[in-house]
Write a structure and sequence with these properties.
The protein is built from 6 helices and 2 strands. With 112 residues, it is mainly alpha-helical. A hairpin with a 6-residue loop joins strand 1 and strand 2.
Length: 112
C-alpha cells in the first residue's frame, strides 16, 4: 500500500470513505519496524532530540536513523523542527493517543 505524505494529513473522516483506513494503515506501517519502535520509546523519554542523539543511543548508521525518522515524521507520529545547527525531533503524543483511540474503535467495531 503506497500512501503519500499528503494523504497522512487528511483527517480520518475527510474525503473518501477509506481516508481514515489509509491513514491508520500508514501509521501502523510506520510502527512495523523494531528500530522505529525503539526510536519512539527513546523520544518519549526526551523533550526532543537530534538525529545524532539517536545514532549514539542505538549504534545505527546516521542514514538509517534519518530514514526511520523520516518515516515516523511522514506518518505524523513525530514532529520535525528544523534548526540551523541541529534539527530536533519530538514525539507527537496527540497523534499516538489518536492512534490508540482509532485502534480501540477498530477492535470494538469488529467485535460487536
Amino acid at each position: 500500500m503506497n500512501i503519500s505524505p499528503a494523504e497522512l494529513l487528511v483527517p480520518p473522516d475527510a474525503g473518501s470513505p477509506g481516508a481514515g483506513s489509509r491513514q491508520l494503515a500508514a501509521r501502523f506501517a510506520a510502527l512495523s519496524h523494531p528500530a522505529r519502535i525503539k526510536i519512539l520509546q527513546h523520544l518519549a523519554c526526551q523533550e526532543s532530540c537530534c538525529c545524532g542523539d539517536v545514532v549514539q543511543k542505538f549504534d545505527l548508521a546516521q542514514s538509517t536513523v534519518s530514514q526511520h525518522l523520516k518515516v515516523l515524521v511522514e506518518a505524523g507520529l513525530v514532529t520535525f523542527e528544523p534548526d540551523r545547527r541541529r534539527s530536533r525531533y519530538r514525539i507527537d503524543r496527540t497523534a499516538l493517543s489518536g492512534l490508540s483511540d482509532q485502534l480501540a474503535n477498530l477492535i470494538n467495531s469488529c467485535c460487536r
